[in-house]
# Entry
Amino acid sequence: MFVALAYRLMVTVFSWLSLLARSSSAKNVEILALRHEVAVLRRANPRPTLSWTDRAFFAALTRIMPKGLRACRLVTPGTLLRWHRRMAAAKWRQPRPSGRPPIPDELIALIARLARENHRWGVVRIQGELRRLGYRVAAFTIRKILRAHRIPPPLHRDDSWRAFLRAHAVTLLATDYFHVDCAITLQRLYIAFVIEIGTRRVRLLGITANPTGSWATQLARNLAAELEESGHRFTRLIRDRDAKFTAAFDAAFSSIGIRVLPTAPQAPRMKPRAAYCTSSG
# Structure
């Protein structure tokens, strides 16, 4: 007990002597640091938090404080160095983007319209159709827009080619040629035909031994006149990229509102078996 009291008195005496050896500026700096530390500790709820003004104040005082007093502060030199590294890293950090741009109202209306007019289309199908139109919209964004407009998800999804044909087959036509080899005359005849996709009805347009572009155009004009008189419901004509299907051939169908759709280049085509004609007619 006596030894501890003597040690405490000796430490106090030496601290007074060290205070006498310090300059008045060092004492003032320590007093300012102690007052600010007390002010920070009074905010402890449950742990004292330092604002950017507190960090700047402690950093400035530690700069002019004697080295012997820097280690006994509320903010250690290691903490000051960590603050400095963070500040230097933040100076050279790239600014974050402001976020995704808002979706235009026209695009939102288009998404809602596609969902209302096509009850079997899901989010992925709507996203694919928008991509064909030149819009790139995330699936989450489309789902969010549909929920905001209270549009329920499709009950039955069927995006197969068979479902597409069921919906549009009655408006589709397809045209092509096939040939017949006559065994008697050793002559090859070319037959032009058109098939109605919905009913599978085949129309034979003409037969010739020398198919040309003008011949195919005349057949197209005859078929267009016949369809116009009957009040057709066809909107598309599918054909391959044969050179006999000229621009005049397409114009004959465009005049009655039928759009001609060429197949993809080098697309596989069905080759019917060659038949043999035994008659001489």
